Structure formats: C-alpha cells, structure tokens
Amino acid sequence: MGQVKRDSIINTAIMYGGIGVGYLNKGLLFPLLLLTEEVGLINVVLLVVSFFGQLSNLGTGMLVMRFLPFMRGKEAGYSGLLFFATSILIGGIGLVSIVLLIFNVQILSFFVDRSPMLLDYSIWIIPLGIASAFFSLFEHYLRAISKNIVSVFIQDFVLRISVLLSLVIFYIGLVDIQTFLVIFFSLHFIPVFFLFLYLLYLKQFYISSTYLSIGKKLRKHMLGYGLIVYVNGIGRSIILMADTIMLSVLSGLKEVGVFTTMVFLSNALFVPYVSVIKTAAPNVPRLWKKKDMLGLTELYKKVSSIGYFVTFTLFSMVWFNIDFALSYLPEDYSGGKYIFLLLMIGRMFDALGGINGDILLTSKKFKIEIWLTVPLMLMVFFFNYFLIPTYGGLGAAIVTAGVYILYNVLRVFFNAYFFKLFPYDRQFLKLFAISILMFSLGTLADYFLKGILHFLIVTIIPLVFFVLPVYKLNLIPEINEFIHQILIKVKLKNAN
After folding, report:
1. Are residues 440 and 495 in the same domain?
2. pTM for this entry
3. In 204-336, which residue ranges form alpha helices assigned H by DSSP?
4. What is the CA radius of gyration of the chain?
5. Is the pLDDT of residue 162 over 60?
6. DSSP SS3 for 320
7. Which end of the chain is more exposed for a tag (fewer CB within 10 A), N or C?
C-alpha cells in the first residue's frame, strides 16, 4: 500500500490543483460568461467524444492492464502488448467512424428540435473521439507500468490551465464565441499528444511488430477477455452518459447546462477516490496472479475506507454551504441543489464500493459484470424516459443515483459470495456511525443558523465531529499518517 499511498497523494494534489482551476472554469466562468445552452453544448459534445473513444477502444485499455503482468519484461517490449492493443484500437476507430459517417443524418435528427446548436459542432466528434481513444489506451498502459502521474497532470492540470487561458481571451474580447469554441475543442488534442511524447521519452513506445511474441492461445484468450470487457464498458458508458444525452433530447441544452455543472461539482469532490483507484487498480491483477487473497482483502478495505472518508468529509462541507455557493451563479442554476445532493449520494456508494469493479473484471468471474450492466442499462433508459419530461435534471439525477447504489451493492455482494472478499469491518462501522452523527448535527446547525455564523460553524462541524474522532480513534491508519506528515511540515508535531 506504500506506493499506492504515495502515488495517490501526488495524484490527489495534482488533481485538486486541476480541480481548483476546473472549478474556476466550469463552476464559475462557464456559467458567468457563457449562455446556459452553450455550457450544455460543450458538455454534450465532450460526452459524445468520450463515448466515441469508448466505442472504438474494443476493450484495449483493460486488456493492457489485465495482461501486462503476464508479459515478458521491458527489455522484450512486454511481448509487443502495446502494438497488439494499438492494432485492435485502429480497427475499432475505423469501424466506428464509418458507422457514424453513414448514419450521421439519422443520429443528429434526434437533436434537431431541442438542441439544434449541437448540429453545428458535431464535426468535432470523430477527430476528438480518436484522440480520446488513444489517450485512454496510453493512460492505461502507463498505469500498468506504474507511470500514472504524468497522465493525471496533463489531463487534470495542463488542459484546464489551457482552457482557463482561452476563457480569459474570450472575456477580454479578443475572440468571439464561435472562435472560442474552436479553440476550446482544439485544446483537447493536447493530452494525447503529450502522452505520446512521454512514452517516447520513457522509451516505452513498443509499437513495432518485431516485439510481438504473444502465443496464439493466449492471444485468443486475450481477445475473448477484451470483448467481454468491451461490451461491459460500453454498457457502463451508456449508463453514465444516458442522463445527459436524454436530457438534451427531451429537455434541451439549457437543462443540460445546469445538470452537467452539478455533475462537475460532484466530480470535484470525488477526486480522492479517483486518485486512489487509479493507483490501486493496477495492483489487483498482480494480487490475483500471486493468489494473495489477504493482500487483496487489505487493499479492498483500505480503498473503500479512504474513499468514503474523504468523499463524505468534502461533501458535508459543501452541502452545508450549497445555497451560499449557488448564490454566485446565474438564476438558472438555483435549481441544481438537489440534483447535486442526489448525484453525491450515488457517488458516496461508488466510494464505498472501492475496487469492487476492478476485482470482478480481473477475476475468473469477469462475465458477471455484463450480467450486471445490461439490465441496469435498460433500466436507465426506461426510467429516464419517464422521469426527465416531468422532473428534468432532477429526474435524471434520481436515476443516476439509483444506478450507482444498485451497481455497487450488487458488486459487493458478488465479491463476497464468490471470493469471500468484503470491504467492511468493525473499524468501518465505527467510521460510518460517526459520519451519520456528524451529518445529523450539521443538518441541525444548517437549519437554525444564518449569516457568517452559519458559514463558520457548518464548515467546522465536519472537521471537529468527523475528521477529529476518526483521527483520534485511528480508524484509518493511512489517514492518520497523512495528517501526521502535514502536522510535521507545519511544525505542529515532532517527527518522533
């Protein structure tokens, strides 16, 4: 867990630096400088681009993560695994691009009535989708060889700084909205370009067929695994993007703008979990290879506890001040409060689940993921279809939260049933009980207090009545060690 902890701390620091810039961009400047419909347009295009990448990758990212530990070493180019995965990816990109070009008119016809602006910028989907597909492959490959910090830095910091600069030049009037959008979308080629250069710098870009030494039997097994993971990944992507796409079709880009801004705010609080997962996930196939069930259990418990602790702390501090935060945004965003709450409830269950999905996907029972994903995907379409026309973004948030809850409950159950892996123990029950007590106290304070006193007290309550008891009881040793290091650096605690 040492490397996981170190890398996740670095990743979290980078990602929170990026989140700070990202909040300035999407949480403040986008709503203030752009029309709500324009915010919705940007987020829908980026979502479709991400789905293009997912459709094209044919499971190559997880294939690399799953099988790299079984390949020959660096000196042998990992048996040409990157070349093998890239060949599959290029085929997937070609196939998806052809299908989109053939059915372009029919697909865009769904958006004509409610989201006509989307038609003018659909030209970006294929080129940005190709960049997204290659970025995903390179990022998974770097994670598999334990070089995941640079990809986080480029995606979560460099790109967001670049977007901030583009917003500045738009604000001071150097470019109009059309030119800004061209610049904005063009900036999203930066991450994949830098990852390509980074792989060359590491001398890890084994993209020649001369390295390929994967046997036919293993290749067949890898393709079968990749297909299962691919179908499951597509299903999960559909589940995650259905709310935004269906909002754009059934309600319009204005509703999308509010909803996706709340999604961004909830994602900002989810950064610690994401950083831990990105660092912990590559260890799962290694532990399976060693059949180290004790190590897997320990990792499972720690990731779930740390993810829940940090996510719940940040959520509480923001939720008790959500009205204050939304008061700075245009009136259109005032209805986002309960959308944010529902999204965070779903995210909390995701944090509680920890690495449950990675355990299933890298185990012999990986097909379970499909049996979970397909019914949930159908449920998402069914409930969104009926709830969005009546409740708009709130209806989409209800469905999203429900899917996160059900998904993670079932994953935890299957890991416990098949592998006797369970992430919760007495320490976690204490952690959970303290969080409920703190949240109850904070809710009372939120209801009765007003003004500056309200802001000060409800912000302090999570620290005093949750973080402090968890620290004093040493419920999460990794958190205690992290706090110790901070106290030492600010001279509040001796190194001894």
Report:
1. yes
2. 0.74
3. 216-250, 253-268, 271-280, 283-290, 293-319, 322-326
4. 23
5. yes
6. coil
7. C
C-beta separation of 118 from 44 below 8 A: yes
Tell me how far CA of residue 129 lies from CA of 51, 56, 84, 121, 151, in angstroms. Answer: 8, 8, 20, 13, 18
HSE (side-chain half, CA atoms, 13 Å) at 188:
23
Same domain, 388 and 441: no
pLDDT greater at residue 124 or residue 275 = 124
Residue with tokens 């701390």: 9
Model confidence at 201: pLDDT above 80: yes
Q: How far apart are CA 412 and CA 428, in angstroms?
A: 15
pLDDT at 6 over 70: no
Question: Does 430 lie in the same domain as 418?
Answer: no
Cα 495 to Cα 481, 489, 491, 492: the distances in Å are 11, 9, 9, 10
Residue with tokens 């689940």: 353
- For position 98, what pLDDT does the model report? 92
Structure tokens at 399: 């469905």
Q: What is the mean pLDDT of residues 260-274?
A: 80
DSSP state of 157: I
pLDDT for position 424: 92
CA distances from 289 to 65, 100, 351, 362, 364 (A): 13, 40, 25, 10, 11
CA dist., res. 96 & res. 188, Å (int): 20
**Nearest partner of 215 among 67, 91, 66, 364, judged by Cα:** 67
**Which amino acid is located at 317 in the chain?**
M
Q: Quick check: 276 and 307 in contact, CB under 8 A?
A: yes
On whether both 21 and 161 belong to a single domain, the answer is yes
Tokens at residue 47, please?
């979502």
| Residue type present at position 79 | S
Q: Assess contact for 321 and 455: CB atoms under 8 A.
A: yes
The conformation of residue 252, written as its DSSP 8-state character, comes to -
Q: What's the length of the chain?
A: 496
196 or 20, greater pLDDT = 196
> Which amino acid would we find at residue 100?
L
The residue segments making up the domain with residue 418 are 2-424
How far apart, in whole angstroms, are the C-alpha atoms of residue 291 and residue 279? 20
Report residue 165's pLDDT band, with 50, 70 and 90 as the boundaries: very high
One domain for residues 227 and 256:
yes
Domain boundary among 381, 405, 424: 424
In angstroms, the first-to-last Cα distance of the chain is 22
Rounded to whole angstroms, the Cα distance separating 137 from 205 reads 12
| Range picked from 40-44, 190-194, 284-288 for highest mean pLDDT | 190-194
Cβ atoms 270, 351 nearer than 8 A = yes
Q: What is the pLDDT of residue 23?
A: 66
- Contact between residue 175 and residue 169 where contact means Cβ atoms under 8 Å apart: yes
Based on the fold, state whether residues 200 and 124 are members of the same structural domain: yes
